[in-house]
Amino acid sequence: MTHPKLSDGILRVNPTLKHITHRRADDSAKYMINYVPSGNRMVGLYRNDLTRSAPPSGTHKVEFSNSSSCLTKVNEGLISDIPCEDPRVFLYKNQPFGLFWTGMHQDFYIVDILNNDFQKINTSNIRPKGKNWTTIIIKGQLHIVYRVYPLIIYKYIEEVGSLELVHKIKHSGDDVRGGTSFVSHGGDWYGVAHKTHSPDHHTAVLIKISNDFTTIKQTPIQLTADPYKKGVFDPLSIYLDGATSELVFISHWSAKFVWHTDEFHTLECRVPLSLTSTL
């Protein structure tokens, strides 16, 4: 395996293929699988479409045994009838949570995955709602990253499910969109966003936010293995692996836009934490 390298301002990473799903003959598909560690398992969510034109068929949980070489599925299933589109899984209070929207209904939910506890977010003060929301934990409190460029962050008031604007920061760089949540390491926050070049071409960008929110840096990520040098690469979840001292992010990949292809890959990318200090 080729180790990640930073050169010419680009972070080059060799991804590991963890899982493959296919669109079935009846046109249904499971994809956008992403997860975080929970004990000796990986726990997460995925999107499940019955047809290309219908909204996702509820919220689906997935569990994998934790293996360095592959993900062996041990449990999956429907946990709610709420349509779950583009889920982002993250760790909060050392437990797996998810953030997702319902597509055409334009509702957003936070879910405690292990306890099947759903809370609808009050978005009455958000216009436009958009999508690609993600999360960041600030002083132990859950916040919603509404946009990455510019950086717009809302505090999530759990008791009532409402949002309070706390940061709106303009910064230099490319117009990137939300991907993974942000995790804290060494006094900074790290997350992986995506850049849309065309419907059939997405790339990833590592985002580093200083602890005082005065500095925001972007580092393009380039995948070094075929066929992943092209196609749609969408980062979804992230966590710190203390055993290996690595930043780990999970991504969805397909050769083309999701409606134009029938095979979906779940990729894992690892970056040594020692490398993040040089970004």
Describe this structure in words.
1% of the residues lie in helices and 57% in strands. It is mainly β. The strands form five sheets. Strands 1-2-19-18-17-16 form a six-stranded mixed sheet, with no helix packed on it. It has a four-stranded antiparallel sheet with strand order 3-22-21-20. The protein has a four-stranded antiparallel sheet with strand order 4-5-6-7, with no helix packed on it. The radius of gyration is 17 Å and the shape is globular. The model has no long low-confidence stretch (mean pLDDT 90).
A few lines on this structure:
The chain is mainly beta and 279 residues long.
Produce the secondary structure layout.
Elements: E1 5-7, E2 10-13, E3 16-22, E4 29-38, E5 41-49, E6 59-65, E7 72-80, E8 85-92, E9 95-101, E10 108-112, E11 117-120, E12 134-138, E13 141-147, E14 151-157, E15 162-169, E16 183-185, E17 188-198, E18 201-209, E19 216-223, E20 232-241, E21 246-254, E22 263-272, H1 273-276
Parallel strand pairs: 2-19
Antiparallel strand pairs: 1-2, 3-22, 4-5, 5-6, 6-7, 8-9, 9-10, 10-11, 12-13, 13-14, 14-15, 16-17, 17-18, 18-19, 20-21, 21-22
